[in-house]
Amino acid sequence: MPRRVLIVDDEADIADLIAYNLSSAGYETRAVYNGSEALEASDSFEPHLIVLDVMMPGLSGYEVLARLRRGSRHVPVLMLTAKREEKDELAGLLKGADDYVTKPFSMKVLEARIAAILRRGGERGTSEAGLRGA
User: Which side of the chain, N or C, has fewer Cβ within a 10 Å radius?
Assistant: First the structure.
């Protein structure tokens, strides 16, 4: 059974390109284009991993991440964003992201990072306590 990856980016071309490439690599994908759709798709699609943009109109990626982390199940999140400064990366990781990749990005590196997260067992039920030092 293929792993499900939800791609969330308000730039439809980027989201669709990632979905196409991940589908070609054997993942089941769904692309959505805003934070509200991301939360809905997280429940209906039940992804094994979410690729999440930070800067989106309406609900930002950080707000989506916070709502996901307040929920009862843990879904690994890889932040994909143009925000390149160290403070931004730290903010994403400390808010509960499992990884952080900046744009422009290599599709091969993105695929490898997704595979690494899934290989580490970063699926539903995994605690983020290790990152927070608890």
Answer: N
